[in-house]
């Protein structure tokens, strides 16, 4: 995955899977940070360990960190590289990009609250097909997942089914339903809305205006008059 400064959340999700698939130890190092070799000098200060004093374990840690840095660097453009080039560890690089594009913890919390509100208030729009509705819903849940708020699949399925059923129920109050139909006539839009009657299943009118239903009602009235 390559990051050019746009759609960071998508790049982050793809990059996470990519790194984990290469070596999960690399991912642990990026998340938790490497314990780079250090020593204590004569003043009691902890300083980076000189390379000429590395042992085999030290070199393994340093090499793993360099490998993780290399993967991140190869996945970003020159502008993004300038932001992280001074970082010592792969974790520092990852965290700097995260703060740059997702903000601090407080900013993240604000974003989560905003997206959770969108999630909770989610509903199907008028004149919106199922595919468009599902795309909007997925964009919200993906954005939440990217900043650490995760819903289970069962929660998301129940949520979208409830909203869809509520939308259908609101349509049934009018005795008809709305769907989108392809129109191949030249000069006409590719999709139009048609009202379908629930009584006769024919387009162009609601159930309350259905000729068949009116005939039935008239027949009932005549029978009632004859009976009296």
Automatic annotation (TrEMBL):
**A GO MF label:** zinc ion binding
Gene3D superfamilies documented for this protein = Zinc finger, CCHC-type
> What InterPro entries has UniProt attached to this entry?
Znf_CCHC (IPR001878), Znf_CCHC_sf (IPR036875)
UniProt name for this protein: Zf-CCHC domain-containing protein/DUF4219 domain-containing protein/UBN2 domain-containing protein
Zinc found in the keyword field: yes
Q: Which UniProt keywords apply?
A: Metal-binding, Zinc, Zinc-finger
The organism encoding this protein is Cephalotus follicularis
Boundaries of every CCHC-type domain copy: 197-212
